[in-house]
Amino acid sequence: MRKKSHRCVRFLILPLILAGLLAGCSRDPAVRKMKYFESGEQYFAKQMYREAAIQYRNALQIDPRFTQAHYGLAQCFLKQGNWQNAYQELIRTVGLEPANGKAQLDLGTLFLASGKVADARDRAETVLRADPQNAQAQLLLADADVARGDLVKGLGEAEEAARMDPNRLQPYLHIALIEERRKDTVHAEQNFQKAISLDPKSLPAILALGAFYQREKRWSAAEKQFQAAMTVDRKSPAPRASLAALYLSEGQKDLAEKVLRDSKSELKDNPAGYRMLGEYYLSQREGAKAVAEFASLYSEHPNDIAVAKFYAQLLAKQNRLDEATKVNDGALKQSPSDIDALILRGDILTRQGRSGDAVHSLQQAVKNAPENAAAHYYLGVAYAGTSNIEQAETEWTQAARLRPGMPEPERALANVALSKGNMSLLVESAQQLIKIDPRAPEGYVYHAAALFKKDDRAGAEADLKKAIELAPNDPTAYARMADLRMSERRFDEAEKSYAEALKRNPSAVDALAGLVNVDLARKQPEKALRLVQDQIARAPASSNFYVLLGQVELRNQDSAQAAAAFQKAVELDKNNVIAFLALADVEVSRGSTQLAIEDYKRALQANPRDVRLLVSLGELLERQNQWQQAERYYQQALQVQADYPVAANNLAYLMLEHGGNPSVALSLAQTARRAMPGLSNAADTLGWAYYKQGVYGAAVDQFQEAIKLDPKNATSHYHLAMAYEKENNHAMAKEQLDYALQINPNFDQADVFRKLLSDSAQHK
Q1: Measured between alpha carbons, how far is 480 from 448 in angstroms, rounded to an integer?
Q2: CA-CA distance, 5 to 14, in Å (whole number)?
Q3: Are 246 and 219 in contact (CB under 8 A)?
Q4: Which of 153, 259, 354, 681 allows an S-S link to 349, with CB 3.0 to 4.6 Å?
Q5: Coil, helix or strand for 442?
Q6: Over residues 524-537, mean pLDDT
Q7: Residue 763 pLDDT > 80
Q8: H helix intervals, 46-169
Q9: In the 8-state DSSP scheme, what is residue 607?
Q10: Model pLDDT for residues 549-574, shown as the tens digit of each residue
Q11: Do 548 and 516 meet the contact criterion of CB atoms below 8 Å apart?
């Protein structure tokens, strides 16, 4: 019995030992990293690049120097078009393994695509030194030569690649493309056909020949090639996309759409295949069809993040922001660091009037992808929404540097230059816009504005006529031409041009405002009022038209009707902060301060992070001697935007007046002074902060600057007198006190002034 029992124990121990060995293997870092890597390879083979990237990253968490995982991750990024991250991973790969020729060539290809021809050649030559017969490296040299315009040398390099590997079709495709650029279409066609002869089932070669025929306008030959490509690979979307593009270039939109509809049905398991019809509608600017198509795709493929992003963007364009948010949040749940989704979330938040929240989302996007021009552009838009124009300008400048052909940042910079009166910057941005798209009107409109500011009216008029010629249905140039005529007091012509602008866009507020100004210049305020009322009848949902109506009512000195108009504006658009600010101002002017405070709070419910509302409410409360509440709103504004200068200035002054931390107040005052060098109050606040710190010389300097900026500011004269007193300069102190009392005999510090004057006389 003992022996039997002993044997049983041995049999029991054996599986325990095996389990222990297996557990030990699972804890072995080398085994674990290879498990993740192999899983990544399997996902990559299935074209599941996002999942593959996760597994490669898991492997790299175990071994950050695992070269194969870095290269695999780079390949995922390349497949996804994420060039910046692909570049970073390729740099890491070749840093760890300089002899990795594939990574070196991938890196060289990225360099070439970004215009860094010398760097691309360097990578190709590095590979050729280690492997002199590497035809792929030789082709990269050829591409680099072609990129710098040396077609003869490029052709020689490509022919050398063909000699290195005569049975490989890629060199012949390169030779064909170079020959085509040299206008030798006969030899180009021969080399395309040579490539196909080496591999009759090569999809890239067949498609390349078809594209050549299409460029040569040999439509039937191109169609034959694309149809042959579809026969070679029924599951590939590329031949179908090429055939649809061919039909579209021939003006056969129905045939193009049919090809893409068939693709959606036949390639229902291939994301690139079933998305093509929706992408086609986008390219053709058929918004309604695109929305319907992507709504259908989103329902059928809820986990396709690309579909979700397309659909969310379309919803946002239609101003269906709540729906767009829901779809986009779903995409971010799948991929929290997705740059496009982060950018769209920031854009939506900005358009909802939540610019402070948008800044946070877009800062994350910029952190994740510092070379993404769109992220910088939209971050600039969000900063502008918080009235931080300096930071907005910085972001737009960075976006323009990263992508010189992107019009949006140049347009934004042009507007900044216009608002600042910086004509040299405006000319620069206008010229860049014209360079980006010489057939677009906006560059000429901005250039006209710069010339107008320089009093070159003839040049401005020529630019505006060019803009109208290029885009006769665009209202902008008509409105700016009307502005030009108004400056010349040619009211009839101005009125005609404003009317043309308004006819092309019934919601054009600037055109309607221009017509109002014409009537006011003619001293016809009643006509101006009727004009706005008539336009509101045509576009009753325009919140901005009601803002304009309120402004006209104020000009007519009817504050009750103005308040009603502003009230209607905020009812139509709870995010119209300008309307809320105007409503509060008119209520204060009518003595309804408490009502104004309530309206500010109502506005903040819809726009809780808008610094303009927070600061304006703080200022109103401060005037009501409710300084503790005012402080709270200034602090909230600074939580939204830490360097918002008006909030920093006002909070600093309240702290200095009511026993706050003088060091914190000084820091806030310095922030405000840097941002608002031309504002008297900012200089005065900083001077008062220095005074409270006992630095009287610096205080005197700031008070003197404040008085230079605003000689009628009694407070600054009083503060300067106080600083002179501390420096025992009694004569200058008396002089400043006299100035202060002359400016405002009823100043709230007048009794203090008189006591100081008496004390100064005793010092004498």
Answers
A1: 9
A2: 15
A3: yes
A4: 354
A5: helix
A6: 89
A7: no
A8: 49-62, 67-80, 83-96, 101-113, 117-130, 135-147, 151-164
A9: S
A10: 998 998 888 999 999 999 999 999 88
A11: yes
Give the rounded percent of residues in the chain with a pLDDT score beyond 90.
62
In sequence order, the 6+-apart residues with CB closer than 8 A to the CB of 630 are 618, 619, 621, 622, 650, 654
* Amino acid letter, residue 487: S
Query: 237 — phi, psi (to 5°)?
Result: -75, -20
> Under 8 Å CB-to-CB from 635, ≥6 apart: which residues?
651
d(CA 565, CA 559): 10
Give the residue carrying structure tokens 């230079």: 708
- The residues near 465 (Cβ < 8 Å, ≥ 6 apart) are 481
Where b means 16+ CB within 10 Å and e means fewer, 112-134 reads beeebbebbbebbebbbeeeeeb
Alpha helices in 624-728 (DSSP H): 627-640, 645-657, 662-675, 680-693, 696-709, 714-726
C-alpha 5/C-alpha 367 separation (Å) is: 66
Find tokens 């049999």 and name the residue. 11
Number of helical (H) and strand (E) elements in the chain, helices listed first: 45, 0
Residue carrying the six token digits 């005074």:
691
**CA-based torsion, 427, 429, 435, 440: positive or negative:** negative
In tens, the pLDDT along 207-254 reads: 999 999 999 999 999 999 999 999 999 889 999 999 999 999 988 999
63 phi and psi angles, rounded to 5 deg: -140, 95
CA–CA separation, 47 and 75 (whole Å): 11
Model pTM score: 0.62
Pair 478, 498: CB distance under 8 Å: yes
